[in-house]
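Late entry, magnesium ion complex.
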Amino acid sequence: MTDQIAAIEIFLVDLSQQQPYLGALRDGEEIDPHGYFVRKQNGTVYPRKNRSLVLRLVTRDGVEGWGETYGIVAPRATAEIIKDLLTGFVIGSDPFDVQVIHDRLYDLMRVRGYNGGYYLDALAAIDIALWDIVGKITGKPIHKLLGGRLHERIHCYVSGLPCDTLSERCELACTWRDRGFDAVKFASPVADDGVVTEMRELRHALGPETRIACDLHWTQTTASAIELAQQIAPYQPWFIEAPLPSEDIDGLKQVATHSGQTVAVGEEWRTVFDARLRIDKQAVHIVQPEMGHTGITQFMRIGRYAEAHHLTIIPHATIGSGIFLAASLQASAALGNVVSHEFQHSLLEPFRHFTGDVLTYENGAYGITETPGIGVEPSCEMKQRMDRV
Ligand code: MG
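Prediction complete; structure with ligand written out below:
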């Protein structure tokens, strides 16, 4: 008889730092009694203290699998979905049925409209943990289970420059350039002097060789995105990310067609169906799957769909402990069209010991581990910051 899932445990991991994500609060941004604040420039809610949701599956034979999903906002909602609903359908299952399990769990809630958000985040965490178990039982890293490794290392770009002033942000970007990282991305909600000035000053500071991407955080209209793209064109942006609200697929196609810039989207997608709506319309040039939302199964489906359309893939990496990043690097290693990967230096550097310093990044690229499964698990330091929920 094959091994079966016997237990599920869920933890909240404290990833809090002195500064919130993207840097200090700006004028008019205040923390509410529940610990949240809204960035004025993009209207998006963030927590004062970063955190993520980590999952541990254990089989009857005692094999452990680790998964993780987005946990910065209302993480107990995701935990409750797993505890109240999904546990009963996962316990007793064969981890080698990982894709069947994913699809069955997806189908359970289709009629309720839960084809996004917290429900699919819960599925992502379970999916990563199941793949981790399959890797450990077979003694293979995930990229082997996905068909093999196509990259020795994976190029990465420095994401976010969480400093108070533009000159400090330029300085930080130059520090990373001098460490051998040849690509950075800045975030428009904290580009206090405006996107054009931010882009211009970063280009002047970094010189012509460094690639500079601009994350517009869904803030523009079709017309303003096209205009902005033309204004920053002299400073040679690498790509513009998430220019429009994600509902506006027709507008996105207009921006992709007429802005003259390379358009990257995908971080909020959960499934290949989200990808299909944009890819079929030729509304995207670079596809950015986010492992914390997709799990390995949907990440690969999005990646294969992008490859079938000859699109470039640059995976996104949001706030996490390193567990879903490890899964993302394993899956990315098996996708030939991956040309780079987000590097959340402000989290990975201070918290790299949380996953035992297994995740390496040198000279502008991530290493890829050959350890079975996703290749990482929580260290003693991380376990001290994990609370069972
Ligand atoms: Mg983004």
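The chain has a mean pLDDT of 96. Will revisit in the morning.
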